[in-house]
Large ribosomal subunit protein uL29 (Buchnera aphidicola subsp. Baizongia pistaciae), 65 residues
Amino acid sequence: MKKVEIKKKTIKELNIELMNLLREQFNLTLQHSAKKLQQSHLLQHVRRNIAQVNTILAEKEKECD
């Protein structure tokens, strides 16, 4: 996901996106631990997306204060 796309979203949408990413990370971690994950790089992508969403979310919350 591009940063421009993330910045256009509202705080509510960002929270929903964050929950979806965390759920996806959990599922990928389970698959990885069971040795069923063929594309282990997906974990890194999801982790990066979580960090980006958290950063933008913090910026938007700071703006509201």
Remarks:
- The chain has three helices and no strands.
